[in-house]
Amino acid sequence: MKPAKFPGFLLANILVALLVGYLLDSWLHTSPVFIVAGVLYAVIGSIILLVWHARQNNG
Questions:
Q1: Which of 27, 37, 38, 48 is deepest in the core (most CB within 10 A)?
Q2: Which of 32, 13, 41 is nearest to 24 (CA)?
Q3: What is the separation, in whole angstroms, between the first and last Cα of the chain?
Q4: Where does the pLDDT of residue 59 fall: very low under 50, low under 70, confident under 90, or very high at 90 and above?
């Protein structure tokens, strides 16, 4: 993945995590539990993928 594509990739992951988290929270009547967990998962996962692709291309 090129670094220029990362912001769009990150934004798409966060938006999907927000949508899924919102739907789960409204269905299970939990407050922001799944929204926060999903966004953290999306951000951390995206950064790990960026580092992993960078190491593969430079290695």
A1: 38
A2: 32
A3: 14
A4: low
